Amino acid sequence: MSRVGKRLIQAAQEAAAMARGEPVPGAIIHTPPNVRAIRAGLGLSQSAFAARFGLPVGTVRDWEQGRAVPDQAARVLLRVIEADPNAVQRALQRAA
């Protein structure tokens, strides 16, 4: 079997292991932020959270209910909101 074939088989085995929840050495799993916990920590309703950070309320609802997963840019925004919500709000005010 070729080197490429062996690597494809290894990749498929690693993917199957990750799907079963098994740790795979060297694999980095990016878990989406817990939007509900971030929002609740700020004491905001879904609509207030969405309005404060310029997000569609339907998107916030979908994230919280598991119907959608934040993409990479949204994950970064949510992590910044989690760490320093006022910084995001100040940036949004400057951009307006």
The residue-averaged pLDDT reads 91
- For this structure, the CATH topology of the largest domain is 434 Repressor (Amino-terminal Domain)
CATH-derived architecture of the largest domain:
Orthogonal Bundle
Structural class, by secondary structure, is mainly alpha
Total number of beta strands: 0
Walkthrough of the structure:
Helices cover 67% and strands 0% of the residues. It has 96 residues and is an all-alpha fold. It folds into two domains: 1-29; 35-95, lambda repressor-like DNA-binding domains (434 Repressor (Amino-terminal Domain)). Helix 3 (46-53) crosses helix 4 (57-65) and helix 5 packs across helix 6. The termini are far apart.
Quick tags:
96 residues, mainly alpha, 434 Repressor (Amino-terminal Domain), 2 domains
